[in-house]
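Bumping with the actual sequence this time:
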Amino acid sequence: MKKLASAKKYGKPVDGHAPGLDGEDAIAYANAGISTDHECFTTEEAIDKIKAGMKILIREGSAARNFDELIPLISEYPQEIMFCSDDKHPDDLVNGHINLLVKRSLKAGYRFMEIMRACTLNPVRHYNLESGLLQLGDKADFIVVDHPDSFNVISTYVDGIKVAENGKTLIESVIEKPINLFNARKLKVADLEVKALSDCIKVQQALEGQLITVQKLHKAKIVDGNVVSSVEDDVLKMMVMNRYSHADPAIDFVSGFGFKRGAIASTVAHDSHNIIAVGVDDASIVKAVNLLIDVKGGISYVDGKESGVLPLPVAGLMSDGDGYQIADLYSSMNQSVMKLGSELDAPFMTLSFMALLVIPAIKLSDKGIFDGTTFNFTTLFK
């Protein structure tokens, strides 16, 4: 509430994300001063929020994709719709972002000016941006396209200066020593042991294309008194460990990744960006995590004796290397990960959301398992 009061004091719009909130709850949410939502996954929910006075951002990321469900709203509520590219991997960004949503909207037959409004006029007005709207006295911020029907961007101008042409930046890069606070301890296999307190565990189920998870109960697979991954049931061990100071890992179990062998790990783990990993056995998880500790953040995978790591030296979240080269490296990493058996479109991005506590139903933090429906910590065992 203090954050909301501060935003109101300085006249700043407040972005929200509250998937599944509708009816009277949506009205209360909007009345608190929250003006947008980019997490809607049904049309009905989005309409409730629009009627409550909110703007809807149609989001299409690498893992969470809501364009097809929500794009019909642009015809009925053209003043309330914006586009959003949220959490896109570098190999996806190389192919495009907002411009791809424009193309898809055009191909689907929606009106050109309504589409343009969603990605220019509406966000500029809502966020009070300094970007130009090509009015008298505005900065000359614009793009040049080949044709409105195909919408291929030829060049980009900011304040009258050409900054990109034919998909290539004209901005000179500046290299500085990256800031990265990283002080995690190395893992051992014993750190991941989970003593069986009962034979029934709570499992968070990852869903393709969504940030929400579903909680389900599952019979624990117990070996030598410890709960272990059950590959045959697609119930895999997952851990989150504080990367800013020495701490023990928090552990739960997740379904939906479908790995038959190996493990993956990442320091891109919303919102605290600790180390998160999932795998079929403790040794693979430990190896994947320690690869990240060696380079102070990034993404990694382990497949038996084969392994790979993509360092992210800027806060463990970004690379200071060439974006196109990083996209190629990520694409190669992702291809290796897909061999582990997952049918997810974006396993790394899906993994990052398993630590996003504010999205129901249950998620995992470095402090333990969190129930997003009650906003309280919960236990692994039923």
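The tokens above came from a reply further down the thread. The chain has a mean pLDDT of 93.
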